[in-house]
Amino acid sequence: MRVKDVKKVVLAYSGGLDTSVILRWLQTTYQCEVVTFTADFGQGEELGPARAKAEMLGIKEIYVEDLRETFCTDFVFPMFRANALYEGQYLLGTSIARPLIAQRQIEIAEMVGADAVAHGATGKGNDQVRFELSYYSLKPDVKIIAPWREWDLTSRTKLIAFAEANQIPIAKDKRGEAPFSVDANLLHSSSEGKILEDPAVEADESVYQRTIRPEDAPDRASVVSIDFEFGDPVAIDGERLSPATLLTRLNELGRANGIGRLDLVENRFVGMKSRGIYETPGGTILLAAHRAIESITLDREAAHLKDSIMPRYAELIYNGFWFSPERRMLQALIDESQKSVTGTVRMKLYKGNVSCIGRESPNSLYSMAVVTFEEDQGAYDQFDAQGFIKLNALRLRLGAMAGRKGGSL
Asked: Where residue 105 sits, what CATH number does that domain have?
């Protein structure tokens, strides 16, 4: 891209060292006007300082937006309807936030007449892919500036030197090598890099921000009920809550009971393995509760089909294909399955563990009359099982007989 082609750019701006350096670098390298966009995803930080720093750096158009409800309603909850886990463990807390940031950036770019969008993701990670696939899906002719793939500021020392030379305030804890990097939102927090890079070394307790140690959790279990309607949680202990408020409440319960910690070595889309420490307290409770209500409301084959496509769905989100046609197709199938997923589950939380202790639904497929070991009054004729078994055994018997003729048995 030629520098002169860009007159105005929308930057995904956190207010931290990296994006503040990027802001000034865009101004000096591209000689363009910069518009900043900062999203409140429930990361737990005051966003006022980000606005103040953008103003100090001469930014005239500053967007700071509370997107917590949109994040939960349009991204987190649809993903949880699928019970999505990447590589069987990761609840995709970072992955699911990127398409919303990208979507809002494109909307702002269209609104203010910007030529380009910019992000602060490095050239080694997944986020550059997630941001840019989303940008291209929403605006095929978009111009993208990825400073980490363009500049020569290849170390934290160089970033700090650039910041000092350009009068960019640096938080005191950023003057040395940061012990690890953190990404957080309402769904989770993730920590990686530096002191966490050796997967053989246990993460220090200082890494954990969203949960207490399971060993320090109360010696008495907490019991909570969660109401679902069409696959989405709507109430806790009978109190209806907005999506973001509900997830916040579950986070508080998870934190207090040491729930949701994960030490994971994962396979990045770009090809390398990386080690991360994830904390998803409310999401861990929500996943277990959703599977519990599905267990009595989903038909067996529907449930098994849904489980079979889940790894593919989770991989699409992890790799940045939220806006792809195949993700939308899978979402339509998943959402169809949730029409009967309404009811209440009771969950027990105890020292890092979460388990279902009861579930009920007006749409329940569970029949005590059929399953009972007592007299079922004709609801199920056990003699029918003989023919069922023999029919299912037919191919096995034929295979065994053929093998015997060949001398293998």
From this structure: 3.40.50.620
Sheet holding 261-267, edge to edge: 181-184, 189-192, 273-279, 261-267
DSSP sequence for 253-269 = HHHHTT--EEEEEEE-T
Instruction: List 147's β-bridge partners, or say none.
Output: none
Cβ neighbours, 10 Å, residue 168? 18
* Cα radius of gyration rounded to whole Å, the chain: 26
Residue-range definition of the domain harbouring residue 293: 183-298+341-360
Looking at the structure, tell me whether residues 172 and 201 fall in a common domain. no
Is 218 strand, coil or helix?
Answer: coil
Distance of alpha carbon 176 from the chain centroid: 30
For residue 247 the two structure tokens come to 């997830």
The per-residue pLDDT for range 18-30, each reduced to its tens digit, is 899 999 999 999 9
- The residues annotated with a catalytic role in the active site are 18, 98, 127, 181
List the CATH number of the domain containing 246. Answer: 3.90.1260.10
pTM to 2 decimal places: 0.92
Give yes or no for a contact between 53 and 26, defined as CB atoms under 8 angstroms apart. no
